[in-house]
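Sharing a chain and its predicted structure for anyone who wants a worked example. Both blocks are below, sequence first, tokens second.
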Amino acid sequence: MAKSIADKIFENKAFGKDAYFSGRAAIEEFFEDLPKELAGIWPMDFSEEGLETEYYSANITGKQAGFVRTLQIKGAVKGQDSEYVVAMDFDFDGETFDVELESMFKAKGKSNVPNKIIGKLKNFVSVHDQAMGNSGKNSSSIGVNAKSGFHHDSGQELFGGYVWANHGFSFGSKYGNGDLKRIQGQFKEFCSEQGVNISDKDLAKFTIPCHFAAFDCGVEVVNKLGKPVHIGNAFMSTQSWHGKWSGGDEDSAQEKYAKEYYNENTPKNLRRKNAVMALGSGYFKMLKKYAEQSKKKTDAKAKPSIKENIQLMRARLAKAISG
């Protein structure tokens, strides 16, 4: 008999002063009204990948006067040389199943666990909606706080603004949708500082996070780690915004971008290029236009002026005469 989600949680729970778990019956009850298909695709289950999940807490709460039940999960996905700590809320109102990814940070090592967690969450939400017949505005969703800066517990430097853009999230969540206009304005100013002048007409075409993250016109900027990166990377790595993904986004431009960006069947050096192409010919042509403009400016700076050419010629002539 297949294990229930509650089985998977309680068989792998941690113990200690910071561990808090609601009763097993309460957690079983939380999942009893969900489609049975979800039990086999629990997004925190990595047993088939040879990884261990340890749960620090699993707490049932109520929101909106009890109309929404919430399961707050915190745990770690551990490999032989890596560990990622994840905290998320699962909200269920009887029809939609929304996930709020509160935090996910690397405790040690490096692996593709974050990509796998996001993939599992997207699949979990999509399977739920297919089984429930949800679509459009009634679709379930995943919300994230795409934070750049420093993690409040670990002190680890975060580049969430850039990372989550590449995962196919759009602007907006339960916190509202006030980030787009702010980021558009700051992006235009940032590009101008690098000598790239984005027109207002083109700026209006930047509507989703990956539009900003993917912007590469050949101009490199040194990021916070001292590494030269393209403008989109440098800019979004300093930004914090609220994002969402819903079942209705499966065929969106940002989801196509994310699938290409993290396509493990494609060589790494081609993934970003393929992801940009997934945004459509209009975006690609715009990038090409700004790349050509930037190249002309660079060539103009590199090319000696008439005055400089005359000075060089005189210097060569003087050297030839003296020699």
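Comments welcome. The two ends are 94 Å apart (CA to CA).
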